[in-house]
TrEMBL record:
InterPro entries: Ald_DH/histidinol_DH (IPR016161), Ald_DH_C (IPR016163), Ald_DH_CS_CYS (IPR016160), Ald_DH_CS_GLU (IPR029510), Ald_DH_N (IPR016162), Aldehyde_DH_dom (IPR015590), Aldehyde_DH_NAD(P) (IPR012394). The keyword NAD applies. This is Aldehyde dehydrogenase. Keywords: NAD, Oxidoreductase. Signal peptide: none annotated. One of its GO terms (molecular function) is aldehyde dehydrogenase (NAD+) activity.
């Protein structure tokens, strides 16, 4: 895709927005249904493309994680859009209310929204924002990841089969295309990916004052309380590392546990992994996306080991090459303490006591999610009130994403803005404040000359 083509395509979308600034409910529902049809009617093609891009990716996992999750988001929007689009009445100030004034907030489309999506769930992380963007009545322009070329090419083809080029368009290409893409004068951009690129995008978007939603990653901790069920914790954490081979922004990154419970936990983790046949070569496995990421993970582990970390490799039940690697207590300067892992490697840090664990979490930027395993509501409340993160989960991992009625996003270093469900509809809408004056001309009251009545009412207004 050349830069000129990017601009031409963008202009096509922008002109269409100007011609239809407020698509009806029926038009929006039709667009959402076409997303659903595009997903369902091409499911095997999607799964094949994903597997080609990853080297191998279980078709069942792709079907669930990329297709079903996206369809669920469409269904949720289809069911609720009518209510989201309703104007919300607001109470006017008492003095204006007495004059018969009315106030409400109504959501209007922002215009053309850019979606920059990553490789780890290349369909869902393009389609899930698209659902919110189209529900809010916008036009959409998607820049999918160059790290998954087969899936991105299929997305480009199928979007052009199911949508006209002035509704939704896709721009495939390398980083130079991505850089030019985010310089376009969008009405909003949603970017999902790493923090370094997010800083570039923010600088570029600032030139045109383009509002941003940034869905970033980071290190999501697991707090293992002294009241935690270790078998359950181990099973769920192991799942979080195996699913998509741990290449998930909300995967548990590191685990905090007191030293006495480390060995019992490792033994439970070993059993949990042995009971999982998610190893490479199995029909249900997922590969590391490319050699660059495999090498990155190997470096994190070997550096952690060389910096006094204990390393354990736990294998699935067919004893294949694919393993969950656990790195325990490397020295503070090891990169694994600060870099997002994003793969089937778990960092464990032994540290007892909730206060110490909370203090450790608070030393770094706010994570995308904090996982707490334990039975204590009081402890869970302490974690809620004494930390900050995009999401907070008790006794589970990852399944918070299965809820379309919850906002999704980070805070601070893990991102800004939230989307999905009604939160996505609002994120990509211009919530317009509407005021309709009443039957009394209030401007006459505040126009000079000012009288004693004016002065008395002015003082009274401070009391109501
Ligand atoms: P990536 O390399 O696929 O890049 C993401 C997108 O950014 C791609 O579309 C790419 O073309 C574009 N891009 C690259 N360089 C650019 C530039 N200079 N200017 C503009 N756009 C550019 O993905 P990644 O960054 O490797 O993704 C992994 C990261 O994403 C991890 O940190 C992960 O935690 C995070 N992530 C976050 C979420 C979330 O929802 N919060 C979801 C998935 C992944």
């Amino acid at each position: 895709m050349s830069i000129t083509n990017l601009e031409t395509q963008f202009t096509t979308l922008r002109c269409a927005y100007h011609l239809e600034r407020f698509p009806s409910l029926a038009t929006r529902l039709d667009r959402l249904r076409r997303i659903r049809a595009m997903l369902i009617e091409n499911e095997s093609a999607w799964c094949e493309a994903l597997s080609e891009d990853f080297g191998y990716r279980s078709a069942d996992q792709s079907s669930f994680a990329d297709i079903t999750t996206s369809i669920k988001s469409v269904n949720h929007a289809l069911k609720n859009l009518k209510f989201w689009m309703k104007a919300e009445r607001r109470t006017p100030d008492l003095s204006l209310r007495m004059s018969g004034a009315k106030t409400y907030v109504e959501a209007f489309p922002k215009g053309v929204v850019g979606i920059v999506s990553p490789w780890n769930f290349p369909i869902n992380l393009a389609i899930s924002p698209l659902v919110s963007v189209l529900a809010a009545g916008n036009r959409a322009y998607i820049k999918p990841s160059e790290a998954t070329p087969a899936t991105s090419a299929l997305l480009e083809k199928l979007i052009s089969d199911y949508f006209s080029e002035d509704e939704v368009a896709v721009a495939c290409g390398d980083v130079d295309v991505a850089q030019a893409f985010v310089k376009l004068p969008f009405d909003h951009i949603i970017y999902t990916g790493g923090e370094t690129v997010a800083r570039h995008i923010m600088r570029d978007a600032a030139e045109n004052l383009v509002p941003l939603t940034l869905e970033l990653g980071g290190k999501s901790p697991v707090i293992v309380s002294s009241s935690a069920d270790l078998a359950m914790t181990a099973k769920r954490v192991a799942f979080g590392k195996y699913f998509n081979a741990g290449q998930i922004c909300i995967a548990p990154d590191y685990l905090l546990i007191d030293a006495e419970r480390l060995e019992p936990f490792l033994s439970e983790l070993k059993s949990a992994v042995e009971n999982t046949d998610s190893s490479q070569g199995s029909a249900d496995s997922v590969s590391i996306v490319n050699n660059r990421h495999r090498q990155r993970l190997e470096n994190l582990v070997s550096e952690g080991e060389s910096k006094s970390g204990r390393v354990i490799k736990l294998s699935g039940n067919n004893q294949s090459a694919y393993e969950l690697t656990v790195v325990i207590d490397p020295a503070d300067e090891a990169g694994i303490n600060t870099s997002e892992i994003f793969g089937p490697v778990l960092l464990i840090k032994t540290m007892g006591g909730l206060s110490e664990q909370i203090a450790y979490i608070n030393k770094s930027s706010h994570p995308l999610v904090i996982y707490y395993f334990g039975r204590s509501e009081a402890e869970f409340r302490r974690v809620a009130c004494e930390t900050s993160s995009g999401g907070l989960v008790k006794n589970d991992v990852i399944f918070q994403y299965a809820n379309d009625d919850l906002p999704f996003g980070g805070v601070g270093g893990s991102g800004m803005g939230k989307y999905r469900g009604e939160y996505g509809f609002k994120e990509f809408s211009n919530s317009r404040a509407v005021y309709k004056s009443g039957f009394i001309d209030v401007s006459g009251f505040v126009t000079p000359p000012y009288t004693d009545v004016f002065r008395m009412v002015n003082k009274l207004m401070r009391k109501i």
